[in-house]
Amino acid sequence: MNIKQLIKAELDYLSTQELQEFYELLKSRSQRQNNHDDELGDLLERCKVSTGIQDLAEQHDHYIHGTPKREVE
Question: Is the dihedral of CA 1, 11, 21, 32 positive or negative?
Fold first, then answer.
């Protein structure tokens, strides 16, 4: 059995109250994750630097280490 099957099997043994608590736990976890994703996006947006170099991501070795530019596919 995989983990989802194991969890589903255990759900049959929980009371209505326990199911409600489990559901609330899952919802709060997912909401926290969404908040963390938003916070990370905001942080990245605040930290970005405009270099004017259009191919910096693809050719970072060239700009940092002086290696020849790679061919872009």
Answer: positive
